[in-house]
Amino acid sequence: MEFFRMRSLRKTVLLAIVASVVLVVALLHSWPTRAYTTVDVRQRPGPIVERHLEERLPEPDQRSTNIAYRLKESVAGLLARNGCVCEGESGGVNLPFAQLLFPRVSAHPLHTAFDASELEEMKRRRAKEYQGFQMRSQTPVDMLIVAEANNPLQYPTQGVEVRPLKTILIPGLALQDLPRELYTVNFTSTLGVLNVAAEVEGVKVKGDGEMHMTLMSSLLPNLNRQLQFVSYTNTLFHPSTADTVQFETEGHQAMFTIKIRHRVTPKLYNTGPKGEYNISALVTIATKTFLRYDKLQDLIDSVRRYYPTVTIVIADDSENPKTVSGPYIEHYIMPFGKGWFAGRNLAVSQVTTKYLLWVDDDFIFTANTKLEKLVDVLEKTTLDLVGGAVREATGYTATYRQTISIEQGEEEEGDCLHMRRAFHHIIQGFPNCVVTDGVINFFLARTDKVQQVGFDPRLARVAHLEFFIDGLGSLHVGSCDDVIVNHATKIKLPWVSQSESDKTYAKFRYPPASSDATHTKNGLLYFKNHFQCLTHN
Amino acid sequence: MEFFRMRSLRKTVLLAIVASVVLVVALLHSWPTRAYTTVDVRQRPGPIVERHLEERLPEPDQRSTNIAYRLKESVAGLLARNGCVCEGESGGVNLPFAQLLFPRVSAHPLHTAFDASELEEMKRRRAKEYQGFQMRSQTPVDMLIVAEANNPLQYPTQGVEVRPLKTILIPGLALQDLPRELYTVNFTSTLGVLNVAAEVEGVKVKGDGEMHMTLMSSLLPNLNRQLQFVSYTNTLFHPSTADTVQFETEGHQAMFTIKIRHRVTPKLYNTGPKGEYNISALVTIATKTFLRYDKLQDLIDSVRRYYPTVTIVIADDSENPKTVSGPYIEHYIMPFGKGWFAGRNLAVSQVTTKYLLWVDDDFIFTANTKLEKLVDVLEKTTLDLVGGAVREATGYTATYRQTISIEQGEEEEGDCLHMRRAFHHIIQGFPNCVVTDGVINFFLARTDKVQQVGFDPRLARVAHLEFFIDGLGSLHVGSCDDVIVNHATKIKLPWVSQSESDKTYAKFRYPPASSDATHTKNGLLYFKNHFQCLTHN
């Protein structure tokens, strides 16, 4: 009996021990390891700090309103007006070939992409989406800050940066004041806390570790030594923002921003062995095809004559896809008729080399198609993309250089987009090359930059410069006229009957207006990019 | 005879006229319409202006070196050290399930992805590519500028911006000097020219239209009125850069930057009619599949139960692709085994709606998979991506929240990457949601942001957080635990024999080491992202 009791007792004790261990472990595991703060990331308009700015700008001197001045038209005329006007050039010679020799600028109001019945609704939706975009892209870094004159405060106006939730010393702080009994400076921040990395003799610190900190001393050198140890720690997480810090002393104030963001992580590519440019290791050729397998095969054969091992990526949205195969060929099948830019986006999304070369499926490589020259330009300059030249059967060679500029319009209406056949500068060291904004559909580019800009899959049919418009501000574009690819003829010779596939091609390539107006070129410029007008020559 | 002579005369005259017209037209057409300047866009190290800065910072007070201070460890310890050390946590309890309950931090030196034989060459190539990256991403906007104390000059320290090749008035300029006989200020720029939009009485302007301009007056109010008309015109084209302007008066100087760049062009999406969230208009479901058509069909069937018309984009790199069809299904065929992230990149490259929902091909939608909740979060906050929760057959539900931070390392070695199972804050207004850096493979995101970050097609097999690492600084990430999708079981039940396709799947999903080391997870972190170490728990 005793034995039995002993065993059941041991069992109970064991059970109790196991139970308590489990309980303790569960408790430890669920024990809140830190108190989590909340963060407000809801979309709302700009920060309150902007009001301080208007208060702080000195009132224009009363007397200045009586001072005479004369407008300088040559400069005043260059300044942005209140809104942009959608107009081209009128008049001009009305001869045959006039448009060819003296191309006139035509203007296109973009709201015309929509029926009158749907325009009101589209405007409303666009305004709502635009508002959200503005709230998300606003940053204190773009706010106008003016430095007060005769301010005894010395402080950094630019270049102070901290990684999210990390700590830095704020550089360049000092006070160069007139002699006083007591010197006081204070700091205010909103997305982080202030502190001191060391405590200096003779200086009193209040509010260290908080969003408002005061330093006081009767000895100026000591206060300045303390100012060399002021730290900032970001506490409210955001991947890319800035804190506006107010720095004050008696009778004077200053404002500066601390950028809070991750440093840009590089996206480097393996380039292959040292020495000459190894085109196969550096370049992938990308193209889109639709119903033109014969032309596509001509392209591939011509490429292989000069670059036998370079990878060719082919996006294909033909109705009954044929097999396209061979070494270093990657063939992607898409839903039928998915579209031109969707196919371009697909092809570039698959590239794993440092550079990609875009070609149309009806190009032919020749001895003049020296990719090494284009690689050399991108290896040696800060350009992201360099176009070449396309030669027609007639011998006419085009580089299709375009400059693109945006003129600010009224907020409700949108900006005006201006495209011109032109370029900006010739590139030093590369006399056959220029800097521009858009080029022809034959170009070498940094893969990471092209993938970052992307080809909008909403553009199903005819589109070209939309890629460069989307790339404005991020792509540094060049164009060289000494690297040439041939274009298999497009001239419809009257005695050659159109093949069935040619007919289908024409139907898709030059289709009637799409049903979804926001997916047409002009509808997209209006809605997606918030433009009101397009002018070009 | 005369008649004959008249006709040949007329002919000659006619020919002469035609010839001259052609000549004139040709001349006009080829007449240089403007003199093109050259621009130097070759890659080279930072600008000379940096030297001015070191000269201008006031010398630290001699006496300050004798002032005593005491380090505050709690703050000093948070500052970046000279380089990062690749170490995890050592020791700790060595019980079973210890790693599960108390996950320890492990450290992985990333150079180990390479054989000793190729490491030297890889380091050299990486350094060369990194150098090019640094030269291309450097901008005067990040340079440290310190405002001089007691400077009679008033000037803008932030927020001055001009579009490329355009003109602006420089705001906030003034001189608050002591009385003098003659007041002089001058400006120096490098990427554009200075001018005045109006000429004020009593002020002499020299160098207007050039890169160095001087304003002189004996009347201070007049000089200040003139300073309200100072303009800057960018003349050297670059899509995104900044000009550092030097502003001086006798005995004092100041520096400020003018950003030269295109404004960010919005990429807005049509959202469908007003009212409740129209999921089909707002969301596209994207997934990648490989040899699991049965699971894929289960996913599609479960989606259709709740969202009959939402588009599903499927990237498929199976060896013998089967047809997957149905309304609103887009099926893309890739080269066999092209890879996991290549497939993800392909799928997202095809999305034309405002949001995309990523799902794995073995998920199952349930009544708890309320996409409207996720859409609500992205519509109402500044988040770019919000993850949900994935529920295993056992009932265990995971959100896989990860924080990612980068610690600066020595330049030659690279930075240290730290990942922890954690989050930053709870989101105000959304008590089930938090802000973090990485989430599980079930998330709703802004299409334009995901396309901009991209899934690197070099990652062929196992990869997940690499997307969030590439997205650091651009993606604002959240995670909500109240939107749940089920995971079709992965538990290998011993009595169920593996099908052939299961076996092939396992072979590709968990493969032996790849031949190209830079295309492995660690090799890519080392080479592409320039990291030296990864720590995680």
UniProtKB/TrEMBL annotation, chains A, B:
State its location(s).
Golgi apparatus membrane
Membrane topology classification: Single-pass type II membrane protein
Question: Taking the first listed entry, what is the main subcellular location of this protein, grouped into a coarse class?
Answer: Golgi
A single BP term in Gene Ontology? ganglioside biosynthetic process
Q: Extract the GO molecular function terms from the UniProt entry.
A: acetylgalactosaminyltransferase activity
| UniProt key word Glycosyltransferase | yes
GO terms for CC? Golgi membrane
Q: Where are the transmembrane segments?
A: none
Q: Which UniProt keywords apply?
A: Disulfide bond, Glycosyltransferase, Golgi apparatus, Membrane, Signal-anchor, Transferase, Transmembrane, Transmembrane helix
- What residue stretches are annotated with the Glycosyltransferase 2-like domain? 285-446
Keyword Transmembrane helix annotated: yes
Pfam family of the protein (one):
Glycos_transf_2
Q: Which InterPro entries match?
A: Glyco_trans_2-like, GM2_synthase, Nucleotide-diphossugar_trans
Name the family. Answer: Belongs to the glycosyltransferase 2 family.
**Subunit annotation:** Homodimer; disulfide-linked.
Q: What is this protein called?
A: Beta-1,4 N-acetylgalactosaminyltransferase
